[in-house]
């Protein structure tokens, strides 16, 4: 009997994708200092970002992933993504609200969306696909 991880799911229409070049799929956590250090080094690639909140080490990571998804619902995922990684020393709610305000998000909608089942399901989907593919830590980078 052979035990192995499932292949990493290929990028889909509902993934967060930016850039051009070889495809790199990253499972990351907004509180992970290694993610913040490594992601900027991934230039000249097509970056696919998937949420992998490691709440045992980073208790706010799931809420931060939900905030990025709520920003996505208003067309501002990458801006929120970059803002969260840019200043990991300020990830508590007051600073999160400041980021949302600075991005011009509808704050009432942002708050409702980040608490919604749709957003929770999206974060869970990314996390489960990472588990199936053998992700154990962040960042985990797959080059396709």
Question: Could you explain how this protein is built, in words?
Answer:
- The protein is α+β, with helices and mostly antiparallel strands and 144 residues long.
- 43% of the residues lie in helices and 13% in strands.
- It has helices spanning 33-38, 61-72, 77-86, 93-102, 107-114, 117-132; strands spanning 16-18, 23-28, 46-51, 140-143.
- It has a 4-stranded mixed β-sheet.
- β2, α1 (33-38) and β3 (46-51) form a beta-alpha-beta unit.
- 33% of the residues are buried.
- The mean pLDDT is 95.
Nearest-angstrom radius of gyration?
15 Å
Return residue spans where pLDDT drops below 50 for at least 5 consecutive residues. Answer: none
In whole angstroms, the N-to-C terminal distance is 27 Å
Structural class by SSE content: alpha+beta
Give me the strand/helix succession. Answer: EEHEHHHHHE
> What is the makeup of the main sheet?
4 strands, mixed
**Sheet with the most strands: spatial strand order:** 1-3-2-4
According to DSSP, the number of beta strands is 4
What is the count of helical runs? 6
Average pLDDT level: 95
Q: What would the principal axes of the Cα set say about the shape? A: globular
How large is the share of residues in beta strands? Answer: 5-15%
């Amino acid at each position: 009997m052979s035990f192995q991880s499932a292949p990493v799911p290929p990028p889909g229409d509902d993934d967060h994708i930016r850039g051009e070049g070889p495809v790199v799929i990253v499972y990351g956590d907004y509180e992970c200092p290694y993610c913040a250090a490594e992601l900027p080094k991934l230039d000249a690639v097509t970056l696919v970002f998937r949420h992998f909140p490691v709440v045992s080490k980073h208790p706010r990571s799931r809420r931060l992933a939900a905030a990025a998804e709520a920003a996505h619902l208003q067309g501002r995922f990458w801006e929120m993504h970059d803002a969260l990684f840019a200043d990991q020393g300020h990830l508590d709610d007051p600073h999160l609200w400041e980021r949302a305000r600075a991005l011009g998000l509808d704050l009432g909608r942002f708050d409702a969306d980040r608490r919604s089942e749709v957003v929770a399901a999206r974060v869970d989907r990314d996390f489960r696909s990472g588990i199936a593919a053998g992700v154990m830590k962040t960042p985990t980078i797959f080059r396709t």
